[in-house]
Specification:
Layout lengths: L9 E6 L10 H11 L1 E6 L4 H13 L4 E5 L11 H10 L5 E10 L7 H18 L3 E6 L2 H9 L8 E3 L6 H9 L3 E4 L12 H6 L8 E3 L17 H6 L2 H10 L10 H12 L3 H16 L3
Parallel strand pairs: 1-2, 2-3, 3-4, 4-5, 5-6, 6-7, 7-8
Helix pairs in contact: 2-3, 9-10, 10-11
This protein binds zinc ion.
Keywords: Cytoplasm, Exonuclease, Hydrolase, Magnesium, Metal-binding, Nuclease
Organism: Sitophilus oryzae (Rice weevil)
GO molecular function: metal ion binding; single-stranded DNA 3'-5' DNA exonuclease activity
Length: about 290
Amino acid sequence: MEKCYENYILIDIGANLTNKKYSRDLDTVVQRAKDSGVQKIMVTGTSVKGSKEALRLTRIYPGTLYSTAGIHPHDAKSYDDQSWEEICRLVENPECVAVGECGLDYNRNFSEPEDQKAVFEKHINLAIKVNKPLFVHERDAFNDLVEILNKYSSKLPPVVIHCFTGSVENALDYLNKGFYIGLTGYLCKDKSDTGVRKLLVDNLIPLDRLLVETDAPFMYPNTRASKLPVHVKEGLTERSTTFLHRYCTFQRNEPCSLPAIVEMIAAFMNKKPEEVALATSFNAMKLFGLS
Ligand SMILES: [Zn+2]
């Protein structure tokens, strides 16, 4: 901890640390995250089994790891009442700080949209019941997702649109509803003129609604390949890129890539990375009640 003052203090609100890619060296991955400045990590639960495992990990790394519990829209087809009871039990635990990941994904439609919608509504009702934030995944399903959430608008707990990849228009709509936006290394992949980069450049996300996450092992922020503006490239510090380039790859991103992501977000917003780090960590602590 002695060199802590050199670091940002960051919270990764979504990392899939139950993924088997970490089964051999999770200790090292968590320690590396801390060394890079990522003090707390929320481990995403995307299935009954995964949510159980995520909760188990919080017991091994108390105060560092937290979990979520839910069924990913890809797996909506696997829903049954018995497994749902398990999700309901899991979210009662204090270390489980959000309901999800849940939502709609029409990009690949691994489950039928009708199944996805039904399972999503189960999560919404559960989040309302236990009064924990809803951790939402949405791909190419903006209209249906909003239509469903609108039905519950007066009762909803805080809603986080995790790994946001949509348009400026969608983001503004989410923000109008009071939702939070989670950003990842997708920033490097975004090639549109009306997407995440535009949102940041035009300063359309208030700092008090922004959260940051790696979605590791996915969403590797490929700072080399993407055409980043010069001032964004220059905003990357040697320290953050060392963690990124030494330990993270396309095959396996890690939470220690978060400082680089925050530096890019800050550069696009024309703000100091320290300011983005402080705001997003504060938001995460408050929203998810992290100690
Ligand atoms: Zn997701």
